[in-house]
Write a structure and sequence with these properties.
By secondary structure, this protein is mainly alpha-helical. The chain has one domain: MetI-like (MetI-like fold, Orthogonal Bundle), CATH 1.10.3720.10. 73% of the residues lie in helices and 1% in strands. The two termini are 46 Å apart. It is found in: Cell membrane. Pfam families: BPD_transp_1 (PF00528).
Length: 299
C-alpha cells in the first residue's frame, strides 16, 4: 500500500521527466545526425554536423565565450552568495529587508531584467557611466579614462554579461543562508571561548561545515552557466559587438534552430554543450571527493 502511494506521488514528476526532459533529449540526439529544416523530412547525414562544427569559427568563438563565462561568473556568484549569507544570517534591524533585496533580482523575468540592464549600460545616458563620470571632465572618469563602452566594445560587453549574472544569486544565497542558520551554535560558542579570530572561525568551522552545500551549488551553477547567458546576450548585446563577442553556445543553438532552421546542426551543437556540461560536473565531483579525502586524512 505504501509503495503504491509513493508511486502515485512520484507519477507526475516521472511523467514530466519523461515528457519534458528524456524524450526531447532523445529526439535531439537523433536529430544531431540528420539534416532537418522543419519543411523537408529529416535526412540522415551521420557525423556531418559534428564535422562541420569542428571547422565552424563562430561555434569555436561561442564555445570559448561560454567556457570563459563559466570560469569567471560561477566562482564570483558563489563568493557573493556566500558573503551575503554570512553577512545576513544574524537577526538585526533591516536584515529581513536586506535578504529580500538580495533575493529579489532572481524573481524578475529574464527579459525585463535584460531590458533594465540595457538602460543601465547605455554608454551615453546610462546611470552606470554617469556615475563613473562624476569627478571627471570632458566625458572622462575621475581617473581620466573613457567610461566602459558596454554595448560596443567586445571586452566590455563580455564583462557586462558577467556583471548581470552576479545580481541573480538569490537562489544560491537562500540555500547558503539556510545552511548557515542550521550550523550548530555550540562550535561557535567554543570558538569564542578560545578567542578565535573571525578568519579562523570562517576557515576552520564555517567553510568546512558548509562545503558540501557549496559543492552542490558549484555543480548547479556550472550547469546553469551554459544557459543563463542566453537572454542577456540576446536582449542586451544581440550576440555582439562584432565579431560575435557575446555569442554563447545557447545563443548559437537558438539562432541556428529558430532563425536559420538548421535543426540538425543546432542539435549537434546542443549535444556538444551537454557533453561539456557532463565533463565539467564529473571533473568538479572528482575534485570535491578528492578534497574530502585529503580533509579526512589530515584529521
Amino acid at each position: 500500500m505504501r509503495r503504491r502511494q509513493l508511486g502515485l506521488m512520484l507519477a507526475p514528476y516521472a511523467l514530466g521527466l519523461v515528457a519534458l526532459v528524456l524524450l526531447p533529449a532523445a529526439v535531439t540526439l537523433v536529430l544531431a545526425f540528420t539534416e532537418y529544416d522543419l519543411v523537408q523530412p529529416p535526412r540522415w547525414t551521420g557525423t556531418d554536423n559534428f564535422t562541420e562544427l569542428s571547422g565552424d569559427g563562430i561555434f569555436r568563438t561561442a564555445l570559448l565565450n561560454s567556457l570563459v563565462f563559466a570560469a569567471v561568473a560561477v566562482p564570483l556568484r558563489l563568493v557573493i552568495a556566500l558573503g551575503l549569507a554570512l553577512l545576513l544570517h544574524r537577526r538585526a534591524r533591516g536584515v529581513g529587508t536586506a535578504r529580500t533585496a538580495a533575493a529579489l533580482p532572481t524573481a524578475v523575468p529574464e527579459v525585463a531584467y535584460g531590458l533594465l540592464w540595457l538602460w543601465l549600460f547605455n554608454p551615453l545616458y546610462g546611470p552606470i557611466n554617469q556615475l563613473l563620470r562624476v569627478g571627471g571632465e570632458n566625458g572622462l572618469t575621475a581617473l581620466g579614462r573613457t567610461p566602459p563602452q558596454w554595448l560596443t566594445d567586445p571586452t566590455d560587453a563580455r564583462a557586462a554579461i558577467i556583471i548581470m549574472s552576479l545580481f541573480t544569486v538569490g537562489e544560491s544565497f537562500l540555500v547558503l543562508l539556510a545552511a548557515r542558520l542550521v550550523l550548530p551554535p555550540e562550535v561557535y560558542e567554543l570558538a569564542a571561548v578560545e578567542d578565535a579570530t573571525p578568519w579562523d572561525v570562517f576557515r576552520r568551522i564555517t567553510l568546512p561545515l558548509i562545503a558540501p552545500v557549496l559543492g552542490l551549488l558549484l555543480v548547479r551553477d556550472t550547469i546553469l552557466s551554459f544557459q543563463m547567458s542566453f537572454v542577456p546576450a540576446l536582449v542586451v548585446t544581440d550576440g555582439g559587438p562584432p565579431p560575435y563577442a557575446t555569442t554563447y553556445l545557447s545563443l548559437f543553438v537558438y539562432r541556428n534552430a529558430f532563425e536559420y532552421l538548421r535543426y540538425g546542426y543546432a542539435s549537434a551543437a546542443t549535444m556538444v554543450m551537454l557533453l561539456l556540461t557532463v565533463a565539467a560536473v564529473v571533473l568538479q565531483w572528482r575534485m570535491l571527493r578528492r578534497w574530502q579525502q585529503l580533509r579526512s586524512l589530515s584529521r
